[in-house]
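retry 2 of 3: previous attempt timed out while embedding zinc ion. Reduced batch size to 1 and resubmitted. Inputs unchanged:
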Amino acid sequence: MLMKSNTPSTAVVTTLVPARQTPAEDEGTPVSVKIRERLVAARKRFNANDNIAEFIEPGELEKLLDEVEVKMQGVLDSLVIDTAGDHNTNNTARRVAKMYLNEVFKGRYVPGPTITEFPNAEHLNELMIVGPITVRSACSHHFCPVIGKLWIGVLPNEHTNVIGLSKYARLAEWVMGRPQIQEEAVVQLADLIQEKTSPDGLALVMEATHYCMGWRGVKDLDSKMINSVMRGVFLKDSNLRREFLSLIPKNSSN
Ligand SMILES: [Zn+2]
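retry 2 succeeded.
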């Protein structure tokens, strides 16, 4: 239900959004309001970690960038920072807007990576482990970085689709490129991999440092959070689960 993004966006949007406004009325409406209206009309959730690409029309991302820049400038103004006189913060509003939309939260605004699935012609049925994949995100609570590592265990069957190893990293990057909650992120990613490949078993382990714990709050730089998701045979077969967990390096922090 969360991921629907491999479909081209424009065709869907046209059907969802009847031309309710004349161009003149439309003029002053912030682009974020227009996108929000489409989401509400389609009864789609738009939490921080949801992808909303199919509701954004061509050219709107650039307008969204301008809008976020203006609002970000407002934040800097309210922080009483002299962005006009201080050359360091002169262009910060624009830089932050770009960073959010085009980099760290890009996974909300662009469709998912194109993944070509192949039939399992070799009939692979051995446990396969991908990792460590470096994951970069930010927590939904504080917008502070969350940086960590991810391991994926897949037990294919003859009907499983096979995807290239690097594609797992692409899918992870897309899901993590949103303000996230680690326990929700692993589930979103598991759903996505499940949907693309339909393996007999799927296991994910994510270990991440939450900088909101180090930079603020308890100021504990060493605390890490570990989450796992087990699906299919990984749930039923404790030996398989143990095999997967034993193959993940114990001291993975370096
Ligand atoms: Zn946080």
